[in-house]
Specification:
2 strands, mainly alpha, Cytochrome Bc1 Complex, Chain D, domain 2
Length: 122
């Protein structure tokens, strides 16, 4: 193989090795702005029915393996999915988590509370 072909091959192939090296967003409570007290209130008033009953595939707080799987998407994606609604392999999450009176801040707080309660976010 000539030198220019090898250089071109290296130029085209080498970046592919780094695609899998991108790390997932960290889930650290210190990296986000969330009020866990408010998150607990929102969860207990509006989220608990579906999550404790695992309705439509909602993760129970004791299903840390399922929460870890979802958390790989990152906190911001989970918040966005909750706000916009989401259909995934376990079921469907309605728009605003079926809490139309909740603000986006409430949703952020509730998602953080659930991640902490499930042991996924520290």
């Amino acid at each position: 193989m000539c030198r220019s072909s090898l250089s071109l091959l290296t130029f085209l192939i080498l970046p592919l090795f780094f695609v899998g090296c991108q790390s997932q967003p960290a889930l650290r409570l210190s990296d986000i702005d969330a009020d866990l007290s408010n998150g607990q209130l929102i969860y207990e008033d509006d989220c608990i029915l579906c999550h404790e009953g695992a309705i439509e595939g909602a993760h129970r707080l004791d299903q840390s393996d399922r929460w870890r799987e979802s958390a790989k998407k990152g906190y911001e994606r989970l918040v966005s999915n909750t706000i916009q609604g989401y259909r995934g392999k376990y079921g469907e999450l309605p728009v605003m988590g079926m809490c139309p009176q909740c603000s986006e801040s409430d949703i952020r707080d509730a998602v953080a509370y659930m991640l902490v309660s499930a042991g996924v976010m520290k």
